């Protein structure tokens, strides 16, 4: 049997979709509720007459950024439900009986995770539509779509400088960290059968504290003229390091998944 076949991949993906559909619906409704709460709580009070236009704009921008932070948080913790169907002996037997290779099963999980993240992004668009429709129904004075503002924020942010460094480099480093953090939760969801989110979160906090301490120590005594060079070097170094660590975590996650046993330790999936 070949290692990958589109037909087997499709069958496996449909099985994962049926198994995880209810969980995904709950997660998407939760994301919609959080986005809507953030948007309404920030913009309702700024939508009445007499509020300066610049204040209304800043309020909407602040709400959109808060929604962005919520989405980034979900991207990270989404790794915790990457493999929810291998926690019990019966679940592992069912997964083993699927007519597909380990690679096809793992890629099916990855595709399902990507669809969930796309769905969470679309929930922001739906929340913005609901907000605008609600404001129009209530006859509020100020109604502005948040989706174009989001793209404008992204475009302007790419042209900014942070500590003299092109912000695109800093954002690339942050994106690499985001994907590494997600991969850490993915690895934990496969390796640990219990308390995986708690254990991985604790490890993540410890690593971040250690990294901040190392950076603060290495930056002490740096001349002001060297701050820009130091920040630029740190951005590209962090981007490369987190990208490599993320790839390593994904490879290890696949290797653990492909070697999964039906009967194993209650805590560790080995």
Provide an overview of this structure.
- The structure is a single chain.
- The protein has two domains: 157 residues, no CATH class; 110 residues.
- With 270 residues, it is an all-alpha fold.
- The longest helix is centred in the N-terminal third of the chain and has 38 residues.
| Widest sheet: strand ordering | 1-2
Based on CA atoms alone, the radius of gyration comes out at: 22 Å
Total strand count, please?
A: 2
Globular, elongated, flat, extended or rod-shaped: what is the shape? globular
Report the major sheet: 2 strands, antiparallel
The low-confidence runs, each spanning 5 or more residues with pLDDT under 50, are: none
Mean pLDDT, all residues = 83
- The portion of residues forming beta strands comes to under 5%
Helix segment tally: 8
Order of helices and strands: HHHHHEEHHH
- The SS-based structural class is mainly alpha
Number of domains: 2
Termini Cα gap: 25 Å
This entry's quaternary arrangement is single chain
Q: Fraction of residues in helices?
A: over 70%
């Amino acid at each position: 049997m070949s290692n990958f076949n589109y037909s087997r991949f499709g069958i496996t993906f449909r099985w994962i979709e049926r198994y995880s559909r209810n969980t995904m619906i709950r997660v998407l409704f939760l994301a919609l509720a959080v986005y809507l709460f953030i948007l309404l709580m920030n913009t309702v009070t700024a939508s009445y007459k007499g509020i300066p236009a610049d204040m209304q704009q800043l309020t909407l921008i602040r709400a959109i950024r808060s929604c962005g932070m919520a989405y980034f948080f979900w991207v990270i913790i989404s790794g915790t439900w990457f493999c929810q169907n291998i926690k019990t002996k019966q679940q592992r037997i069912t997964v083993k009986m699927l007519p597909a290779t380990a690679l096809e099963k793992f890629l099916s999980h990855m595709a399902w995770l990507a669809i969930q993240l796309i769905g969470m992004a679309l929930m922001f668009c739906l929340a913005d539509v609901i907000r605008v429709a609600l404001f129009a129904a209530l006859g509020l004075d100020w109604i502005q779509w948040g989706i174009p503002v989001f793209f404008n924020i992204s475009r302007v942010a790419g042209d900014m400088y942070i500590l003299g460094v092109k912000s695109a480099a800093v954002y690339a480093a942050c994106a690499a960290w985001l994907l590494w953090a997600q991969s850490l939760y993915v690895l934990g969801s496969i390796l640990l059968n219990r308390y995986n989110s708690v254990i991985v979160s604790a490890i993540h906090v410890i690593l971040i504290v250690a990294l901040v301490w190392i950076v603060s120590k290495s930056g002490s005594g740096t001349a002001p003229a060297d701050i820009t060079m130091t920040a630029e070097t740190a951005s590209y170094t962090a981007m490369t390091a987190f990208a490599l660590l993320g790839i390593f975590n994904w490879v290890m996650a696949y290797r653990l998944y492909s070697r999964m046993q039906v009967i194993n330790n209650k805590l560790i999936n080995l």
